[in-house]
Design a protein that fits this description.
homodimer; Thiol Ester Dehydrase, Chain A; HotDog_dom_sf (chains A, B); MaoC-like_dom (chains A, B); MCH/BMMD (chains A, B); MaoC-like domain-containing protein (chains A, B)
Chain lengths: 144, 144
Amino acid sequence: MANKKKLDDIESGETIVGRSITLGEWHVMTFAGLTGDFYPLHTDAEFAAGSPFGGRIAHGLLTFVVGAGFLANELADYDVVAALGFGATRFTAPVKFGDTITPNGTVTEITPKDSRGVVAFDIDITNQRGETVVTSSMQVMIRA
Amino acid sequence: MANKKKLDDIESGETIVGRSITLGEWHVMTFAGLTGDFYPLHTDAEFAAGSPFGGRIAHGLLTFVVGAGFLANELADYDVVAALGFGATRFTAPVKFGDTITPNGTVTEITPKDSRGVVAFDIDITNQRGETVVTSSMQVMIRA
C-alpha cells in the first residue's frame, strides 16, 4: 500500500491501458440477468441475424462497465479516495460476440483541492481492429 | 408490436417508473465477476466494516446499470430505434446490501428529425427512503 501514486505524480496526457478481454455469450447473458435487459438484439440470435448488425451484439452498457472496471483495476497504483462519477457515454460501434475490447484512459484535467484533488480521465474503449466502440470519461478523487 | 407510442405521443415532463429491486450479495458478486472490480468496499465485509459506510456497498455502476435496464424495459411500450447513450452519471449516496432501488425517468427534451427523433430522459434512481442514489440521463431514438 506504500508508494502509491499521489496527485503530484500524475501528469495531464498520461495514459493507462486496461487488460483486454474477449466478450461473448457469457458476458451478455450475465449482464441480461443482472439488468433485466433481454432486448432481442442481445439475446435472440434469430432476431439479431435479421438486424443491420447481422448477429447478436453486446449491450453498450456492458462494454462500458467491463472497460471501466478493467481501467479501475489499473488505478490500484494510485492513492484513490473515491470514484466520483462518469461523463457522457456514447456507443460508437457495435461489439459482436468474440470481439476483444481494450480500455484506454487519458488524464485530461487535474484539479487540486486541499489534501486531495479530482483527476479527470477520457475513456476510449477499442476493439481488436483499433476501432472505438465506447467513449466516456471518469472523475476520480486522489490524495495529494 | 402495433400501437407502440410514437414520438408525437410523448410529452416533455412525462415520467416512467421502472420496477423496484433489492440489491444484495448476488448482484455485487455477479457484477464483480463481470467487471473484474473486486474493490474491497464491495467484496470484503471486514474491510468495509471499517469504512465510513460501516459495511459493504454496491458498485455505483452496478446500481446505474440495473436502474437503466429496468427503465429500458419500460420503453417496450415505445417505438424505439436505438439507445444512443447516457449523460453524466453521479453516485450521490451509497447503496447498502438489502437496499431497494427504483429507477425514475422524466422526459426533458424531444428533438424531431426526419421520420424519428431523439428523446432525452433524466434518470433518478432512489432508494427505499426516497433518497436519490444515482443521477444520469439517457438519449433514445424513437420513430415519429
